[in-house]
Amino acid sequence: xxxxxxxxxxxxxxxxxxxxxxxxxxxxxxxxxxxxxxxxxxxxxxxxxxxxxxxxxxxxxxxxxxxxxxxxxxxxxxxxxxxxxxxxxxxxxxxxxxxxxxxxxxxxxxxxxxxxxxxxxxxxxxxxxxxxxxxxxxxxxxxxxxxxxxxxxxxxxxxxxxxxxxxxxxxxxxxxxxxxxxxxxxxxxxxxxxxxxxxxxxxxxxxxxxxxxxxxxxxxxxxxxxxxxxxxxxxxxxxxxxxxxxxxxxxxxxxxxxxxxxxxxxxxxxxxxxxxxxxxxxxxxxxxxxxxxxxxxxxxxxxxxxxxxxxxxxxxxxxxxxxxxxxxxxxxxxxxxxxxxxxxxxxx
Length: 348
Hints:
Layout: H1 7-16, E1 26-29, E2 34-36, E3 50-53, H2 56-61, E4 65-66, H3 77-94, H4 101-108, H5 112-123, H6 127-142, H7 149-156, H8 162-166, H9 173-177, E5 184-192, E6 195-202, E7 205-212, H10 215-225, E8 230-233, H11 239-250, H12 266-275, E9 284-285, H13 286-293, H14 297-305, E10 318-319, H15 332-347
Helix pairs in contact: 3-4, 3-5, 3-6, 6-7, 13-14
């Protein structure tokens, strides 16, 4: 059964160049004899000349040929850029020596400026910063098993250990290799309307707020995330903070005001800060936040997925295009329930 054609909504999508409709239909222009994607950047045609088709085959059967600019019969320009950025990431991952921007652009087949812009839109980082972040991740993975910091540095792709100590960090490489002996996190767990909630804190503030189905699952997730720390179960000491969280869940208009101790990349911290500015009862689309922060919706989605503090950093208030729910690291049903509660609180 062919999907229905909603001419008024489809024309609106063409006027807005809405890429969210690219997989739903194509439109043809009688005066030119070509058909395009809704997101085609070409000059908008006259409405009387436009017809809508369910797919490229239907447009071609009607005698139209594909636009060479938006290639509606193949990968979109955005999809091709996605693939090129993925290829650039693979080259950066495999390179013994980080290539310069010009070298990387030449390998990919784009100008250096075009690659830099596309790369940052999709990852939130420059190629150099992305390569360094990956190298740091390899170092973090190698340190616990390595015989020495030097061995871990060489395995991660560093030429020595000097660079490891030049950049400021919460833990030195040697401390990280010892799994952060002496670091202590307190945590508390309680039942809540979403199942179970775990709150963990350093002396500086909340570092994790996790939702799950049972306490053991939450403790396991906390140990995996903070493997370098000593964990202390402290329901009594964290009772007041946990009480504020539970109150916000029951009464969303009474937002908990707790100090946060968040660690992430500069880009992640920018996204998380933007999330805290979305009022209860409101939502933002990934695309809106991407435009606000000068990046790509996929980069926003990845930063939301890496958010360790549910509710207090409200990534549940970010939704997909056309109001689609989007993902949520603690389960879509919890996201929908949080939004429902906030919506009802705002309406009352």
